[in-house]
Amino acid sequence: MRINKYISETGVYPRRETNRLIADGRITINGKVCAPGASVEPGDAVAVDGITVTPDREERVYLALNKPVGITCTAARHVIGNIVDYINYPSRIFAVGRLDKHSEGLILLTNDGSIVNRMMRSEHSHEKEYRVSVDKPVTEDFLAEMSAGVDILETRTKPCLTRRISDKEFMIILTQGLNLQIRRMCKALGYRVLRLERVRIMHITLSGLPQGQWRRLTEEELVELHAQLDG
């Protein structure tokens, strides 16, 4: 097995990171510094910074959930309504990112730590699309201000895409994930969010998934997901 694949299967380092580790001389095989493209044979001892690593043979799980309002995106079992108890999956999984308790829609869950690390890096600018209902008419000025960026949390939000859906409803596509970002943006512009639903994360959509239900990601979705994260 190639060293990149071996390291990626530990669930700690993605393949791209492995190249940097090799270049820096931080990976060893049987005590010797690993060369690019090296292979790992059964019985070989592989270490990163002197710490032995082994592939995680646990089956990789990738789920999409249509989260209802009231469920909290935490693995803390003492929290009533936590997402882990709600899913009740037979093995350990955790949410990728967050969707606040009062919001609904698409959230991904997995046991693949490398996926989480790559998806959560802000510089990757992965799209997330939301459908938002507010308490008063959506104007062109409001949409323009939302798109240009709003001052919240001592920063200015990144430019984003918006589109009016109906009198008091609009779509917004973000490439960042500040705490309660959409709610705070709307509040700063004098609007109150009545309903917030995430309908897409990157290329994965909520389409056809009933509220409260989950499904496994398809093979096609996984291939595209890895391609985007490694690109």
UniProtKB/TrEMBL annotation:
SUPFAM superfamilies: Alpha-L RNA-binding motif, Pseudouridine synthase
Keyword RNA-binding: yes
UniProt KW keywords: Isomerase, RNA-binding
Entry EC number(s): 5.4.99.-
Listed Gene3D superfamilies: Alpha-L RNA-binding motif, Pseudouridine synthase I, catalytic domain, N-terminal subdomain, RNA-binding S4 domain
The keyword Protein transport appears for this protein: no
Domain of life: Bacteria
Domain called RNA-binding S4: residue spans: 1-66
Top EC class for this record: isomerase
Family listed: Belongs to the pseudouridine synthase RsuA family.
Name of the protein in question: Pseudouridine synthase
Source organism (scientific name): Paenibacillus rhizoplanae
